[in-house]
Amino acid sequence: MTEAPPALRGNRDFRRLLLAGVISQTGDWAVGTGLAFYVYDLTGSTLSSAITLLVSRLPDVVLGSVAGVLADRWDRRRLLVGTDLLLAAGLLPLLLVRQPAQMWIVYAVALWAGVLSTLLAPAQKSLVPQLVAGSQLVRANALHGQCGEVARLAGAMAGGVAVSAGGLSAVVLLGVAGFAISAALQASLRVPGRPAPMTTVGGQWIDGLRLAARDPGLRLLVAFMMITGLGEGIFGTLAAPFVADVLGGGGDAYGLFMSVQAIGGIAGGLVVAAYPGRAAPGLLLGCATIAFGLLDLALFTYPLAVPAFWPALVLIGLAGVPGAAMTAAFTTLAQRVGGEERGGSVFGLLGSAHATTALLGTLLAGVLAGVLGHALGGSAGIVGTLCVHAGGLLIAGLMALTLMRRPRG
């Protein structure tokens, strides 16, 4: 019988996991931002930039489920430590890049980092229930989710400053330091024991598919991830055109727009984490997703009536609150479905579903925005396609509310 994890307050190991996540992801954002600028500056080619991004994201689609199985089979703390150290070592070949002919090194490093990053997500999320009491999972996941938002703000800025001041070498050293510190913090975690898997890796992978086939809760979570992944692909593709062509802003406006989105997400996570009660994650997920969709719908359509930029900042900042609540509730539900034994497999499956539809959303955004723009004229194609994203959130939120009808085991 394993020892119950401690409550959230005063939880030394959970604090260290949060700090490690912030440091590691800040380094990741710094490398991604600095490398993107360096690649375009070195080659002058948008194709090279696109290839770098593609090879870094492809492992999420291909290896997500495998990464989840490994998170269940292996010691999660050691997996996180080893992955951070391999990420640090894998950045060092970038120090050799001096000319466009060496871009193959960049592609290889991007692929290596993409594979290892795919291993991190299911291991981190399935480790949280081992460190935190079950009644505190929603609050813990809200705090854990803010690591990415904080890292996004700090890392993007640090990466830009580093590449401007010291070139690619400064970016690499910043990333190596971040991953190394994260590994040291996670190596000190005291993780309680968990049930040993009863099947082989292949058998566990098949069991994961069977679980998805027979568990309506997991099927709903997969569908939710597919819908929201499609929307994130659309938004990620059209955010810059929306600011430029619909709102009439420049690069500085786009940077402010994305920064306010991250700040809103941080505020939302703190609101959820500060809630002292035991929020029902199914109800929270449904209501938060619907609120997120309504705010996004207002964000995308208000320029048709009010030609001003400031409402966009207000709306995208407000959307961060339900967005953070949605993420925390979804993660909690996935942890409950998978349990300690199959948590990694569940998150791997969900991650693959999300990554696949996000790529499809990227393709859909380019095609649909062009078709609608040609048919309706002006920027209507951008607005119309973004409204598809908002409508998907409303549908996903209504689907999530059905989780409240399921008895809890």
TrEMBL record:
InterPro entries: MFS (IPR011701), MFS_trans_sf (IPR036259). One of its GO terms (molecular function) is transmembrane transporter activity. Pfam families: MFS_1. It is a multi-pass membrane protein. The keyword Cell membrane applies. The chain crosses the membrane at residues 17-40, 79-97, 104-123, 161-185, 220-244, 256-275, 282-302, 308-334, 346-376, 382-404. It is found in: Cell inner membrane. Gene3D superfamilies: MFS general substrate transporter like domains (1.20.1250.20). The keyword Metal-binding does not apply. One of its GO terms (cellular component) is plasma membrane. Keywords: Cell membrane, Membrane, Transmembrane, Transmembrane helix, Transport. This is MFS transporter. It comes from Nonomuraea zeae.
